[in-house]
Amino acid sequence: MSDPLIITAALVGAELTRQNTPFLPLTPDEIAREACAAHEAGVAMVHLHARARDGSPTQDADAYRDIIEAVRALVPEIIIQVSTGGAVGMTAEERLQPLALQPEMASLTTGTVNFGEEVFYNDMPMVREFAKAMQARGIRPELEIFDSGMIASAMRLVKEGLISEPLHFNLVLGVLGGAAGTLKNLMHMVECLPADSTWTASGIGAAQLPLTTTAILLGGNVRVGLEDNIYYSRGVLSEGNAPLVARAARLAKELGRPLATPDEARRILHLKPRA
Ligand code: KMH
Ligand code: ZN
Questions:
Q1: pLDDT tens figures, 41-100
Q2: What does CATH list as the number for 7-268?
Q3: Cα torsion at 124, 99, 29, 226 (round to 10°)?
Q4: Ligand 1 mutation target, pool 47, 90, 95, 107, most atoms within 8 A of CB
Q5: Ligand 2 centroid to residue 29 C-alpha, Å
Q6: pLDDT for 124-169, tens place per residue?
Q7: How far does the centroid of ligand 2 lie from the alpha carbon of residue 86, in Å?
Q8: Which ligand 1 atom is the nearest neighbour of the CA of 47?
Q9: What does the domain layout of the chain look like in residue ranges?
Q10: How many CB atoms lie within 10 A of CB 97?
């Protein structure tokens, strides 16, 4: 039997608006309903961003608290990973706020990358500050890798004692400014990882489907969802996150990978069992 596949849904993101897609959840209730539908379709973990009342991105801890409580009320068992990436242009101080809520996991980007016309800024002192904040609180980082140099930077953090192996990586391919969303790039990045790592592939836009399929075949895990891709097929918007999850779940079934429950995902990702 192949290893169970962990499907993560990136439900909201920070840069999308309702102009991009009317199916984007923004309020805590909408996000919780999306989490529930995504879980029913096969998701073990959600990657969360928060929005203020006007829909703009925020890293405010109270905004995250409202979302987490709403999600927990509908899907108590799901793994919640908060973003420390926030939106481009936010300060480190702003981005770190949700760690105060003691989430099980948080994203940790290990380098700077052009992000469309903007810059997603993460210099090494900042990356160290984020890693230390997670270490001090016992929060497991998911290392967000937008280009292969960021894997080498993650290994610097290991040497410096700021993160410890086994590591968990999210290979994000297809951001305009990062590594292109090609199968070759995915294979190359996977080859660069320490052998005992776990990894997830996140294909941006049209790269989501081919990279999801390849990651399932390679024995990795997958992230889908509106943050990364709003289209179900060319020119056809996905009516929420669940259709993207359901497709990944169908592919997994066809390709012989059972889906990980949240508790199985906790074991695979070296998270503490749920109390
Ligand atoms: N919004 C992007 C600039 C993360 O969540 O850690 C960064 C991002 C990564 O979404
Ligand atoms: Zn994110």
A1: 999 999 999 999 999 999 999 999 999 999 999 999 999 999 999 999 999 999 999 999
A2: 3.20.20.70
A3: 20
A4: 107
A5: 19
A6: 999 999 999 999 999 999 999 999 999 999 999 999 999 999 999 9
A7: 7
A8: 5
A9: 7-268
A10: 20
